[in-house]
Amino acid sequence: MLLDLTPDEVLSTTRAVRKRLDLERPVEHEVLAECLRLAQQAPTGSYRQDWHFVVVTDPEVRAGLAELWWRGGEKYLGRIERPEEIPGMMGRVVEGVLHLVDHLREVPVHVIPCIEGRTDGKSALAQASRWGSILPAAWSFMLAARTRGLGTVWTTFHLVHEREAAELLGIPYDEIMQAALIPVAYTVGTDFKPAKRAPLETMVHWDRW
Ligand SMILES: Cc1cc2nc3c(=O)[nH]c(=O)nc-3n(C[C@H](O)[C@H](O)[C@H](O)COP(=O)(O)O)c2cc1C
User: Fold this and answer.
1) What integer pLDDT is reported at residue 119 of this predicted model?
2) Contact at 8 Å (CB) between 182 and 152?
3) Minimum-distance ligand 1 atom for the alpha carbon of 69
4) Smallest Cα–Cα separation from 118: which of 64, 56, 50?
5) 155 C-alpha vs ligand 1 centroid, how far in Å?
6) Least CB-packed of 49, 58, 195, 205 within 10 Å?
7) Nearest C-alpha to atom 26 of ligand 1 is from which residue?
8) pLDDT given for residue 76 in this prediction
9) 140 phi and psi, to 5 degrees?
10) With 0-12 CB in 10 A as exposed, 13-18 as middle and 19+ as buried, what is 65?
11) Distance CA 132, CA 126 (A)
12) How remote is the CA of residue 153 from the centroid of ligand 1, in Å?
């Protein structure tokens, strides 16, 4: 069932959901397939359509990914001594991240968007073309999920151990890059607010920088 949201509401309320994920409610395969079919409508460089999505529901594999995610995040989180004292939005983000550390393995679905071809050490053009061929599709997946009452959050911590994740998932590491790990679950409540952003004029450059 689709939520009653306008396109603008979907675009402005698809938030990073970490604490309001319903860990008990299973996510139907068909709902995930609908979101993935919509993701396939995104563009790819040279119309190559060489994207892949690994959809993980197996609890053991999720536990393995959660372990890699924590080990990857530790580098960033380990430097934070008193998370509860960080002011403002960043404090809330860190609090949410620490919550996800404890619960990622319980999130019913982990989605790993992947793209064919590694760009390690390649030109900006090669990198932009490869990443640009998977990131729009992954974001479309997250928007489609939102309209179906699912919460998601873009994460990259596990990529510190991308090779180990590839082994765990059977991904041919030398040929395929993983772009993210997106936890997916129904949300607790469906009301989300637009985020605070800096004024537009601080980031828009009309005609020239
Ligand atoms: C490229 C990228 C990498 C991110 N990596 C992580 C991550 O590893 N772990 C995590 O909890 N959040 C991660 N995030 C989410 C951000 O920390 C941030 O919370 C989010 O973009 C803000 O969401 P909001 O505007 O809905 O509050 C990532 C986001 C992006 C775009």
Assistant:
1) 97
2) yes
3) 8
4) 50
5) 6
6) 205
7) 15
8) 79
9) -60, -40
10) buried
11) 10
12) 7
